[in-house]
């Protein structure tokens, strides 16, 4: 009985070097004068799903944006501290941001397929990397769409506009688009908040499949979702990491008091 | 005032008052627009529509009887007068005459009278009587077509002698003259005799052509001979069936679109002006599109969000409001005199003081119009760029695209309807602009098109004709000449048509592009 639990309860503090996908060390981040992230340190485990939860504006989206340096798009953004991926600090000047972003895929809250064909959408990243060979692209499109469980639905209309797909299909297309680059880490920023419950369930199942081949970090407002899909959960409040533990522990016996106070509030969402 | 209104009317009435007021003003606007379109269509269409010829007998102020052939140009109900275009032996090409209705004794359609258009653009209203030629002296009128064809044959013959023999002999002679070698004298003599021979042949043909005459009579019985070689076409305008009428209209429209203006822009066609307008607009589009789009991309994607950028934005919007003549003066002072003058000094110094690029020309006009329309393109493009959803840009960045790649692959395609709108607006504006063009290259009459078969084919330094300038010119003539006024209206109609077609094209392109990016 006890062994059964032990199998699942990998403790956050015991994540070793080899199993760390992202190592955040003392990350502070400001937008202008606003201190958005306050001394965040956490290790995200490889091939696991880590959920980031907390109120709106608590900095969780900013945190995952700093995993692929998407915060760079804002001129007023400043940061200190390290984000280590594959043993390298990605905030270092010499890091090739394009390559980083192709290895750290991201899916956004609203499905954002490009206004081109389904095929071209999936190829977008590969073409940016200079892949031109038709066969290579065809293979990549097929395998990415299969991984995103979209292949059967769209295989006959690959060259039609992505706009004709439904919301859930579009979101899976966006996931396939990221997967085509064979990312090591997949960042999901509230991927299901614009979708209906059934599609949400579908995407959650997909995440369970995907974690076999890449690390997943998901930001969510939905507590049940975090509890359902994630292996680890980090709880944020006003830019600080309040608690980080494996999901079973965090949702059943939180260490600190704050989650107890705020969780029900958030759960209304 | 406000209070009394409130007391007088209940809320429902107040609302209907507002609705009826706004609807009234809107309908007023519609009426103005419709009357503009109607006026231009009717007056412009009149240029092509064959007007029937009447036989009019009237009494003039000295109580003399007159019998004339005339077209009615205007009927004034109020002052009970009729304006006629009267043709007599003294004025075969028609003169304007205003007659009081009471003084007109009789007015009947003259079915056997024709409007005879001459090659030089003038028109005779007269009754064709018979034809005469050198060999068979008098021929009935029904052989008109055959005779015209014969004249055409002689014309071709003369033309072929001129271009094949005379021109080549002339060139060879010029070579001898430059060499100036004594030994060539016999060959030169031979050439000269060949030249004289060919010239005599031409003269013989010309006199033969001269013999083909069309005899026409006027209402009072007097007659006039017209050289058949100077006749372009002939229509019995009073006796046309419906289909024939449209045939005449079509042939006149074709003339209007394909021929050069004649008789100081009062007759003939507007082809050089149409061509010049299209060429200038085309060159302007090529210049303004990259400039405008790149500037807009910089402003919207790269420029830091600070005071300086705001100042640039405000200046760009204000540039759209600068009076166009100011651009014309700028183009003349900067492009023509400064830039063009310097180009002349550097590259064409051997032809100075005659200017090459330092004079108004089609390129400077296009460049000036490009600057004039630049704000339109920048503002519309920026609007289009701003409409690209932030999520798409982020999606592109998240896939490892650099800023440039994101702009090229994602932002520009989505913004393309906006860019297209801006470019088409710029084209419509440039097509209708007159004032700056008159300073930098558009003229009332240009002998040559800016494009021809001579190297370098596109002559950027040449002056060109422009529809707007033609209309402007026609408007000044119209105070003295009704005919030129209707040519002006016809040009207006054409300009409207051109702008309408351009806008239609814009709408079509925009909807096509929008459809492609439907979900945004």
Overview of this protein structure:
- The complex is a heterodimer of chains A (269) and B (520).
- By secondary structure, chain A is of the alpha/beta class.
- In chain A, 37% of the residues lie in helices and 25% in strands.
- Chain A has one domain: 3-Layer(aba) Sandwich (Rossmann fold), CATH 3.40.50.
- In chain A, the strands form 2 sheets. Chain A has a 6-stranded mixed beta sheet with strand order 6-7-8-3-9-10.
- In chain A, α4 crosses α5.
- The longest helix of chain A has 14 residues.
- Chain B is flat and about 90 Å long.
- Chain B has 3 domains: 111 residues, no CATH class; 78 residues; 246 residues, MetI-like (MetI-like fold).
- The two termini of chain B are 48 Å apart.
- In chain B, a hairpin with a 5-residue loop joins β7 and β8.
- With 520 residues, chain B is α+β, with helices and mostly antiparallel strands.
- Chains A and B meet through α3, α4 and α7 of A and α10 and α11 of B.
Task: Label this structure with key terms.
A: 4-stranded antiparallel β-sheet, 10 strands, 37% helix, disordered N terminus, disordered C terminus, B: 520 residues, 6-stranded antiparallel β-sheet, 5-stranded antiparallel β-sheet, 13 strands
Number of helix segments of chain A? 11
Strand content range of chain A: 25-35%
Strand adjacency order, main sheet of chain A: 6-7-8-3-9-10
**From the coordinates shown, what is the CATH architecture of the largest domain in chain B?**
Orthogonal Bundle
Query: Number of domains in the coordinates of chain A?
Result: 1
What's the order of the H and E elements of chain B? Answer: HHEEEEEEEEHHEEEHEEHHHHHHHHH
Fraction of helical residues of chain A: 25-40%
CA-based shape of chain B: flat
Please identify which CATH superfamily of the largest domain in chain B we are dealing with: MetI-like
Radius of gyration of chain A: 19 Å
Oligomer: heterodimer
């Amino acid at each position: 009985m006890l062994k059964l639990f032990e199998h699942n309860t990998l403790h956050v503090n015991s994540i070793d070097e080899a199993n760390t996908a992202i190592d955040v060390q003392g990350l502070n981040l400001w937008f202008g004068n606003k201190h958005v992230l306050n001394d965040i340190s956490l290790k995200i485990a490889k091939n696991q799903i880590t959920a980031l939860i907390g109120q709106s504006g608590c900095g969780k989206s900013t945190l995952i944006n700093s995993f692929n340096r998407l915060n760079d798009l804002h001129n007023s953004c400043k940061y200190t501290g390290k984000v280590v991926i594959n043993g390298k600090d990605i905030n270092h000047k010499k890091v090739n941001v394009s390559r980083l972003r192709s290895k750290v895929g991201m899916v956004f809250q609203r499905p954002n397929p490009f206004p081109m064909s389904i095929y071209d959408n999936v190829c977008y990243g590969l073409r940016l990397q200079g892949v031109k060979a038709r066969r290579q692209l065809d293979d990549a499109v097929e395998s990415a769409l299969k991984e995103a469980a979209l292949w059967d639905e769209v295989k006959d209309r690959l060259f039609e506009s992505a706009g004709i797909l439904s919301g859930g299909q579009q979101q899976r297309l966006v996931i396939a688009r990221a997967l085509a680059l064979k990312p090591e880490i997949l960042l999901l920023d509230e991927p299901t908040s614009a979708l209906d419950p059934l599609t949400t369930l579908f995407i959650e199942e997909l995440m369970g499949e995907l974690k076999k081949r890449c690390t997943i970090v998901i930001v969510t407002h939905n507590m049940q979702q975090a509890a359902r899909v994630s292996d680890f959960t980090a709880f944020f409040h006003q830019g600080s990491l309040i608690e980080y533990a494996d999901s079973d522990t965090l949702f059943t016996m939180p260490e600190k008091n704050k989650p107890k106070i705020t969780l029900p509030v958030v759960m209304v969402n | 005032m406000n209070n009394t209104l409130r007391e007088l009317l209940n809320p429902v009435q107040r609302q209907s008052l507002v609705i009826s007021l706004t609807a009234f003003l809107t309908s007023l606007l519609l009426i103005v627009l419709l009357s503009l379109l109607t006026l231009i269509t009717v007056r412009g269409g009149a240029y092509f529509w064959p007007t029937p010829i009447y036989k009019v007998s009237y009494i003039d102020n000295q109580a003399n009887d007159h019998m004339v052939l005339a077209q009615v140009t205007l009927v004034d109900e109020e002052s009970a007068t009729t304006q006629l275009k009267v043709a007599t032996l003294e004025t075969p090409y028609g003169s304007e005459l205003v007659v009081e209705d009471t003084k007109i004794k009789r007015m009947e359609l003259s079915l056997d009278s024709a409007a005879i258009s001459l090659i030089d653009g003038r028109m005779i209203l007269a009754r064709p009587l018979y034809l005469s030629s050198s060999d068979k002296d008098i021929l009935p009128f029904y052989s008109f077509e055959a005779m015209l064809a014969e004249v055409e044959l002689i014309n071709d013959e003369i033309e072929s002698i001129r271009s094949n023999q005379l021109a080549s002999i002339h060139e060879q002679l010029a070579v001898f003259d430059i060499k100036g070698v004594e030994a060539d004298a016999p060959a030169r003599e031979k050439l000269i005799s060949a030249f004289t021979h060919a010239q005599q042949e031409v003269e013989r043909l010309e006199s033969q052509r001269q013999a083909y005459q069309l005899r026409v009579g006027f209402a009072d019985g007097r007659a006039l001979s017209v050289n058949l070689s100077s006749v372009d076409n002939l229509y019995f305008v009073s006796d046309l069936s419906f289909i024939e009428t449209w045939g005449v209209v079509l042939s006149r429209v074709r003339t209007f679109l394909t021929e050069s203006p004649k008789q100081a822009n009062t007759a003939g066609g507007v082809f050089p002006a149409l061509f010049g307008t299209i060429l200038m607009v085309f060159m302007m589009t090529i210049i303004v599109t990259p400039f405008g789009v790149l500037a807009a991309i910089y402003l919207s994607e790269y420029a830091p969000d600070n005071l300086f950028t705001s100042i640039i934005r405000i200046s760009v919007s204000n540039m759209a409001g600068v009076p166009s003549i100011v651009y014309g003066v700028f183009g003349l002072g900067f492009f023509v005199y400064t830039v063009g003058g310097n180009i002349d000094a550097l590259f064409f110094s051997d032809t100075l003081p005659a200017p090459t690029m330092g004079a108004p020309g089609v390129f400077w006009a296009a460049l000036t119009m490009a600057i004039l329309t630049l704000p339109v393109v920048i503002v519309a493009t920026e609007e289009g760029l701003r409409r690209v959803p932030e999520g798409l840009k982020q999606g592109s960045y998240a896939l490892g695209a650099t800023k440039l790649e994101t702009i090229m692959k994602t932002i520009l395609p989505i913004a393309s309807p906006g860019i297209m709108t801006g470019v088409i607006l710029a084209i419509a504006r440039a097509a209708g602009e007159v004032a700056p063009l008159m300073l930098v290259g558009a003229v009332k009459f240009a002998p040559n098109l800016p494009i021809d078969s001579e190297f370098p084919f596109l002559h950027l330094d040449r002056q060109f004709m422009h529809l707007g300038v033609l209309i402007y010119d026609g408007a000044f003539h119209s105070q003295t000449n009704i005919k030129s006024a209707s040519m002006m209206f016809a040009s207006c109609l054409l300009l409207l048509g051109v702008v309408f077609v351009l806008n239609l094209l814009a709408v079509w392109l925009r909807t096509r592009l929008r459809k492609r990016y439907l979900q945004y």
